[in-house]
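Posting for a labmate who doesn't have an account.
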Amino acid sequence: MAGKRQFAVLGLGRFGISAARTLEEMGYEVLGVDMDSSIVSALTETLSQVVSFDMRDARAMDQVGIGSFDTVIIAAKNLEASLMATMLCKERNVPEILVKAIDERHAEMARRLGATKVVFSERDMARRTVMHLVSPNAVDYIDLAGSIKIININVPAPLVGRSLIESNLRSKYNVNVIAIRHGNEIMVTPPPDYCFAEGDNIFIIGKDSSLVELERDF
């Protein structure tokens, strides 16, 4: 696993387990942590590295070398534990600290204590669900700064057989196609003469309003 990013997931509820398993399936080294030893015991066959300790304990954090991880995902249900773990990770110079927040108040405190990214799993899932309801072509989307998003859509039928330049998406909608998945191949900044094929996935970046307009037309 040399050279690969190392992750720690603190808090093994549904969100934490899902995150840890997904990362392991992608080939990353992952340490799963929960304060409940019974949860850890139940997951020894599910996760390759899983331990139990109090994530509010600085000494325990140091014993597992939390400062050596590239990313720590804090998914604790307990507010105090979540915030303390965030602060301890920040003090140990963890480059990326992602916190699953309970609410906006939790999110604000986590940011002040050093969280580099905050997610609201229920809210984000609701957004994805709505996206699929209003946009049949949508596969997924990523929030960037402000109103900018990257959306991943299945190629709309009217675009199949047309080249990127013929589709005129940039001029018409003020969006940019940044990548296309064609079968097992991913083309980053595809050439303007690429012709869309059935089954392609398109990654498009733009403002909310522009993406809404594009999706409405297709």
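Reply:
Got it, the structure tokens are right above this. Residues 99 and 118 are 5 Å apart (CA to CA).
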